[in-house]
Amino acid sequence: MRSSVRVERRFQGPERSGNGGYVAGLVGTALAARLGDSLVPRVTLRMPPPLQKDLEITATTDAVRLIDGEALVAEALPVDSEFLADATIDPVLPEEARAAEASYRGLRDHPFPTCFVCGPANPGGLHLRPGPIGDGRTACTWKPAADLATDGLVDEVFLWAALDCPGGWTIDLEGRPSVLGQLTACVDARPQVGEECVALGRYLGEDGRKTFTASTLYDADGRVLARAKHTWITVDPAAFN
After folding, report:
1. CA 76, 78, 81, 87: dihedral to nearest 10 degrees?
2. How many Å apart are CA 80 and CA 38, to the nearest integer?
3. Helix (H, G, I), strand (E, B), or coil: what is residue 229?
């Protein structure tokens, strides 16, 4: 199967490339539709995703790839769903998540302020504000807008996006600026438009230039909507902006 897609500027991360979670969602959801319950998609970003350019999606029975000419932008491969067995972060009440937003560090010093998910300078973004809640965790709330949904339920690609930055802000992004390198995710259910969801992130560890985190998205009734694990790569923000 072959199709084309464009990452519009609204969905950027850094100034000149696409948001990692959103782009991973484009590829990951295409593969998830082909997998059984025992497998989940793992998306590896091979290069900064180009903006406003026709890209090709190719799909086989066991892989989905996003291609720019001859360059591989991102690749989704199946992994055992047990990889996400410990990805679920214990929930917090919406009031605690809202209170954490006041301490969101991205409002004063954001390495990529145009980020679709958490950037304060992107008017069409999700405007998540993951603030610290202790023990290497972040929390925030999210009310999905109507233009993110089909038939009243939020499209899965935006759930992948919402899983991105709550994990990223468990890192010291001022001292260790990082971009998403890999995202493994599972969507269990889709929330309704305007429903108050709670997003959580958790720091898992680091190894050289890599940092490992997890995230979980809950609906208004405290049920798990989606779970993820991430690998982040330390970068020089100037190289992206």
Report:
1. -20
2. 6
3. strand
Say if residues 131 and 138 touch (Cβ distance below 8 Å). yes
What mean pLDDT, rounded, does the chain reach?
Answer: 95
pTM: 0.96
Query: Nearest Cα to 99, choosing from 198, 167, 195?
Result: 198
Q: What is the pLDDT of residues 29-54, one digit of tens each?
A: 999 999 988 999 999 999 999 999 99
203: three-class secondary structure by DSSP: strand
Residue 87's nearest CA partner among 219, 223, 216, 232 is 216
The domain of 232 spans 2-80+87-239
Asked if 201 contacts 169 with a C-beta cutoff of 8 angstroms, the reply is yes
Report which of 4, 6, 1, 14 is spatially closest to residue 60, judged by C-alpha positions.
1
The two tokens of residue 35 are: 């997998």
Q: How far apart are CA 186 and CA 182, in angstroms?
A: 14
- Residue 73 three-state SS: strand
CATH of the domain at 125: 2.40.160.210
Structural domains of the chain, count: 1
Give a three-class secondary structure readout of 113-182. CCCCCCCCCCCCCCCCCCEEEECCEEEEEECCCHHHEECCEECHHHHHHHCHHHHHCCCCCCCCCEEEEE
Distance of CA 229 to the CA centre of its chain: 10
Query: How far does Cα 146 stand from its chain's mean position?
Result: 19
Match 């992004």 to its residue by tokens. 173
Over the stretch 136-191, which tens digit does the pLDDT of each residue have?
999 999 999 999 998 889 999 999 999 999 999 999 887 888 999 999 999 999 99
Nearest by Cα to 107 from 126, 87, 128: 128
